[in-house]
Amino acid sequence: MGIVRWLFDAQLVIGDQTVLWREVIGNVFGLLSALGGMRRKVWAWPVGIAGNALLFTVFMGALFDTPNPVNLLGQAGRQVMFILVSVYGWYRWTHRADEATTVLEPKWASWRSRALLVVALVGGTAVLTPVFRALGSYEPVWSDAWIFVGSLLATYGMAKGWVEFWLIWVAVDLVGVPLLFSAGYYASGLMYVVYGAFTLAGFFVWMAQGRKPSAAPVTVG
């Protein structure tokens, strides 16, 4: 119980700003998970789940009595979603009938799947924005909804092994950075800047893998 209490109580004071260590550690776990995902390693999923659990307690600031009482319902909700989808991804990556290793071969999504992803991102944001607003999420609420829906789709795309999932993360990061800084979640905002560069690099790495002769003819829908 000592480590749990430390995670909940430990704070880092920078000037007049207070940052929770669990926000820092949760984001580091998220970065490690992204690194593992870029290298197509199965361990990326459990590491990500641990980070998601920590960050959920951070973004529900009022509920968990943190120094920052701002609730970002989309950010908190996506941590729960990450855990659920990550369990699916973890299972999928470890139960591939055609793979004897723990490395995933990237695939390009079909044009139909790409169109459905765009429709789901825009439509899901439109549907959830009034819901999050009614629940008291931080303004601009559409940003919180965009991040939630985009994160769901990106994680699903990663589980499917689609190269395009990295581009969804880029779209999430572009909206997430200004939202997190404006809400006072500076550690997460800085990490989103790192994620933005990292997701672009990840896209090009997976794109190169997807163009290899063994993977190029494969599209999944």
Question: In words, what does this structure look like?
Answer:
The protein has 221 residues and is mainly alpha-helical. The chain has one domain (2-220). Helices cover 69% and strands 5% of the residues. It contains eight helices and four strands. The strands form two sheets. A two-stranded antiparallel ribbon has the order 1-2. The chain has a two-stranded parallel sheet with strand order 3-4. Helix 2 runs antiparallel to helix 3, helix 4 (73-94) runs parallel beside helix 6 and helix 7 runs antiparallel to helix 8. The protein is globular. The model is unreliable at 213-221 (pLDDT under 50).
Order of helices and strands: HEEHHHEHHHHE
User: Which blocks of ≥5 consecutive residues have pLDDT under 50?
Assistant: 213-221
> What oligomeric state do the depicted chains represent?
single chain
- Taking the alpha carbons of the first and last residues, their distance comes to 46 Å
The average pLDDT score comes to 79
How large a portion of the residues is in β-strands, by DSSP E? 5-15%
